[in-house]
Structures are given as structure tokens and as C-alpha cells.
Design goal:
alpha/beta, 36% strand, single chain, 15 strands, 240 residues
């Protein structure tokens, strides 16, 4: 499994220390894993990159776009990127945790916490790398979980809405839903499961999923709203 990591910080001394620490942890990793680290000294440069990063270590206080603003822009561009906020100030914790944080750490990063954080991230990345197998147009297709925004069924068909388009299958909704994972997906309606990574807004009448500037509307039932609201707040605060 390739692991693409980005470090974004306008303090070169901090970024060099973080890079050295992360490299030492990954070099000693007990399991085989391919990894690479890209370094950016400005949020703007990182957001211009065409590469999708599994993990992003992001300073909160930076010139230009700060880390909070960058996290919001990054989430719109790549909802599956796991964001690690790193800062000298704990005052930003509440705001950061409400901006899709996977972890929030003060500098310097504690090695033990880094190891545990990377372990948790790798576990989540592996889950999202899983494949859903369905029949569509009389042939078997494989769809990565990370690409699915939501699924729903209408009549005898199950529809899988992805970043690349919508697939329709005669596979039962139960069969498709059974291939999803509770880590990333939530049942918002008797006929709908939503990928929490892509949720940008919601109310008691519907859920908005966003990707690459496009918005998609998913179903939510009144009786599911309270549970979804609780789960999504936990998710947004990094409580996987």
C-alpha cells in the first residue's frame, strides 16, 4: 500500500524535525509499506499539487492561508486525506477539531503518539482501500470504498454514486450495503448509506455530499437524524 504524506509548515526548522521523526518511525515500521514525504512551506503550494495525500501534517499558524483555512480547502479537494494538525498553541484545538482533524498535536510531536497516530491512520486507509464488487451492465465491476459518496436503492436497483459517476446494479441493496464499513459509512435512511468523508452539510430534510466542486443530495430520515448528527460530530472531531 503506497502512503503519500505531505508536511506543510512555514517554519523550516519545525518541518525538518517533523520529517526526520516521521521518516525514523516509518523506516522502523514492522510491516512492508511504500511511503513518500513531500514538504511544502505554504498552503497555496500544497493545494496546487496534483497528488492525493493519504496523510497531511498541517501547521495551524502560517503566513497566508492558516491551517484552519487550508484544512477546509483540502477537505473539499480530497475528502479522504487524513489531517494531522500540529501547532505550538493548544488554543486552536476546538476550532481545528471542527475542521476534519484526524489528530491534533502540540509541537514537538511526541514519538509514541506519532506511532499510534500513524498506526490508526494506516488502519483507516486500508479500510477505505477495500473494494465493493457488483454486477453492472452484465459484468462484474470493482469500486473502491474511498470513491463512493453514497448508495441508495430505488425499485429493484441499487445505485452507487461515486466520484466518477453513478453505477446501477441489480445486486440487492442489502448485498451492497453489507460490503461497506461502519468506519466510513452511516445508514441515514432505510434506503441510503452515506460516506462521512464527503458530507459537507446536512439537516433533518437531507444530506449534501460534495466532491470537486459538485454537490450531491442524499436521503436522511427523521428517525435517523439524531444518531447521524451525533456520529458526524464525532467524526468531524476526529473521534473515529
Amino acid at each position: 500500500m503506497p502512503l503519500n504524506i505531505a508536511l506543510c509548515d512555514d517554519e523550516m526548522l519545525d518541518i525538518e524535525r517533523e520529517k526526520e521523526l516521521i521518516e525514523s518511525v516509518l523506516t522502523a515500521w514492522p510491516h512492508s509499506i511504500n511511503w513518500g514525504i513531500d514538504v511544502f512551506t505554504s498552503s497555496e503550494d500544497m493545494l496546487k499539487s496534483n497528488k492525493t495525500y493519504n496523510m497531511v501534517f498541517l501547521d495551524v499558524e502560517m503566513c497566508g492561508m492558516n491551517g484552519i483555512e487550508t484544512a477546509e480547502a483540502l477537505h473539499k479537494k480530497s475528502p479522504v486525506s487524513l489531517i494531522f494538525f500540529v501547532t505550538h498553541h493548544e488554543d486552536y484545538m476546538d476550532e481545528a477539531l471542527n475542521k476534519h482533524a484526524f489528530r491534533f498535536w502540540t509541537k514537538p510531536i511526541n514519538r509514541a503518539r506519532l506511532i499510534y497516530g500513524i498506526q490508526s491512520a494506516v488502519k483507516e486507509i486500508k479500510i477505505c482501500e477495500k473494494i465493493v464488487n457488483v454486477m453492472s451492465d452484465r459484468k462484474m465491476i470493482q469500486i473502491p470504498l474511498r470513491d463512493i459518496l453514497y448508495i441508495y436503492h430505488i425499485g429493484r436497483h441499487t445505485c452507487i454514486v461515486t466520484a466518477d459517476g453513478t453505477y446501477t446494479t441489480t445486486d440487492t441493496f442489502k448485498n451492497v450495503a453489507g460490503q461497506l464499513t461502519d468506519v466510513c459509512f452511516f445508514e441515514t435512511h432505510a434506503s441510503c448509506y452515506v460516506n462521512l468523508n464527503y458530507v459537507s452539510d446536512y439537516s433533518k430534510t437531507g444530506i449534501t455530499c460534495s466532491y470537486n466542486g459538485k454537490k450531491y443530495n442524499a436521503l436522511i430520515s427523521t428517525r435517523k437524524y439524531a444518531a447521524f448528527n451525533k456520529r458526524f460530530k464525532e467524526w468531524s472531531c476526529g473521534l473515529r
